Automatic annotation (TrEMBL):
Signal peptide: none annotated. Pfam families: Glyco_transf_34. Belongs to the glycosyltransferase 34 family. Gene3D superfamilies: Spore Coat Polysaccharide Biosynthesis Protein SpsA, Chain A (3.90.550.10). The lineage of its organism: Eukaryota, Viridiplantae, Streptophyta, Embryophyta, Tracheophyta. It comes from Cucurbita maxima (Pumpkin). It is a single-pass type II membrane protein. One of its GO terms (cellular component) is Golgi membrane. The gene is LOC111497134. It is found in: Golgi apparatus membrane. This is Glycosyltransferase 7. It comes from the Eukaryota. Residues 68-87 are annotated as: Disordered.
Amino acid sequence: MVAPDFSKSQTSSSPMAKPTLRHKASACLADGFLFLGGALVALLLVWTLWSFITPSINPSDFDSINAQLNPPSDVSSSQSCHRGPSLAYDPPDVTFYDDPKLSYSIQKPMKNWDEKRRQWLNRHPSFASGAGERVLLLTASQPAPCRNPIGDHLLLRFFKNKVDYCRIHGYDIFYNNALLQPEMFAYWAKLPVVRAAMIAHPEAEWIWWVDSDAMFTDMEFKLPLERYKNHNLIVHGWAHLIYDRKSWTGLNAGVFLIRNCQWSMDFMDVWASMGPQTPNYEKWGQILKSTIPDKLFPESDDQTGLVYLLYKEKEKWADKIYLEAEYYFEGYWEEIVTTFDNITGKYTEMEKGAGELRRRHAEKVSEQYGAFREKYLKDAGNGKGSWRRPFITHFTGCQPCSGDHNQMYSGGSCWDGMRKALNFADNQVLRKYGFVHPDALDPSVSEVPYDYPA
Ligand SMILES: [Mn+2]
C-alpha cells in the first residue's frame, strides 16, 4: 500500500515553483503595462483639461506625479509586483453569473463549465497567477446542535485544525452547516456543497472535501498536486480492493480532491443520481448491496456508489480518478493514534541533530521548514507502519457530534484518540506561537525555551 518513492515525488513538486514564479512575473509585467498605459491616458486627459484652464503646467507637478508613478527604489516596485489577487475588482462585463438560468443546485446540470470558468478568469486577470494550484478546502457539519455533550467542542477543535492548516498553506476554507438539498442528508449532503462551491469559486482549480471527523496531523505536508495533473478526482483507495474484491472499503469518500471542471460536474451528476433525493434511491440500495458483497446496510451510500462507478463504469471514469495509496491521504484513526508517541520521539531526536529545524521563525514562512525536514524523513516511510507524521487522521466510525460510534470500540477510545490527535497537531501550530502542550491529553501549555545552536 505504501510506495517507497514518495520523497521523489515530493522533490518533483518543487520545480513547479519556477513556472509559477515566471508566470507571476509576467502577469506582474502585464499588470504594470496596463497600469502605466492607464496612467498615461489619465495624464494626457489631465494635461488636456488643464491646458484649457491654464496656459501652462508647472513642470514640478509632473515631477511629483512621475515620482508617484515610478517609485525610485527597486524594493517598492518589486513589492508592488506581489500584490496578489484583486479582491475588490469585478468588471461589469457579462459572465456566467449574469445568466438568469444559472443554478447552483446539483439537480440542474451544468454545461460548458470549463469555458465559463476560463472566461471568468480572463476577466479577472489578477487571479491568473497560481490559478492551477489554487485550493479551496470544504468541510461541514449539521445545522442543529450536537447530541454528544462534547460534540460541538470537538467539532470546533476539528475546524480550528483545518483553519490552522489552511492559514499555514495559503488555502481558502469554507465551513458549511446548512443542508443545501434537504433530501440529501448525512454523507450525501457534501455533494450539493461541492457543486455550489465550484460555482462560487471559479478562481479555485481544486475543491478539497475534508469530513468534519478528519483532521490534519502533519501541518507541514503539502498535497503533491503535480502528481495529479492528469486526474480530476483523487481519493484514498486501493485498486485491487475495488476491482478484485469489490469491497466498499476499497476507498474512502470522506476526503477527496476534485478538480473544478466540467468532467467533475458530469461525474457528480451520475454519483448523486444514487442519492435519497431521487425516486431510484431504494433501487440503488438493492443494486449496490447485490454488487458489493461486503456492503453492510441496504441503503445506498456515497462511498459504495463511488466504488460501484469505478467497478461498473471503469472505461467511462477510471482514467481520471487517482487512487492515492502512497501516503495517508486520510488514514484510519485506530491504526494511527497509537503511533503518535513514537513519532514525537523520532521527530524530537531528528531535531536534536538539525539546528535548522529548531530555528524559531514566523508562521508565514513555515513551508520552508517543512521542505528542510524532507531530507531527514527519507527513511521514515509513508502510511501504515511509517514514523512520518500521518497527513490526515480520520475518525471513521466515531461520530463526534452524535456521540454514536461503531460497537467495535468504546466511545472513550474515540474521544481520547481525538484529543490525542488534536494535541499532536496543535503542538505543531502552537510552537510558532512559542508554546506547547507537554502532555498528549492535557490542554494546558508551557513555553518553548529558546534552543537554537550556532
Ligand atoms: Mn468521516
